[in-house]
Design brief:
101 residues, alpha+beta, Alpha-Beta Plaits, two-stranded antiparallel sheet, 3 helices, 6 strands, globular
């Protein structure tokens, strides 16, 4: 995967998404959920996860989270939309984010 440069791979993943749904899909389907840059592609996300965490990625599913309209008093505003990636790892592999030991 030499077509994707290394600097771009370091910028693709923004943060792991920790939620009840993320924990559920991690247990049931062996997937890890990441917040990614809006213009990231599936091959870029796969290459970034494999390079950063040294695991084998089986598949990647992406989801665009739509922005929400929020209101503070009379002022209407809009939250930013973002992109979520569900990364399925090969069986027997896992990413541990709390590896502080």
């Amino acid at each position: 995967m030499s077509t994707v440069n290394q600097e771009r791979l370091l910028q693709v993943l923004l943060a792991p998404q920790i939620s009840e749904k993320a924990t559920y899909v991690a247990d049931k389907f062996g997937q890890v959920v990441f917040k990614v840059v809006p213009d990231a592609t599936k091959p870029e996300i796969k290459a970034a996860v494999e390079a950063l965490f040294k695991v084998n990625v089986k598949s990647v599913q992406v989801l665009n989270v739509k922005s929400k309209v929020k209101r503070t008093g009379r002022i209407m505003g809009r939250r930013k939309g973002w992109k979520k990636a569900f990364v399925r790892l090969e069986s027997g592999q896992e990413i541990n984010f709390v590896a502080g030991e």
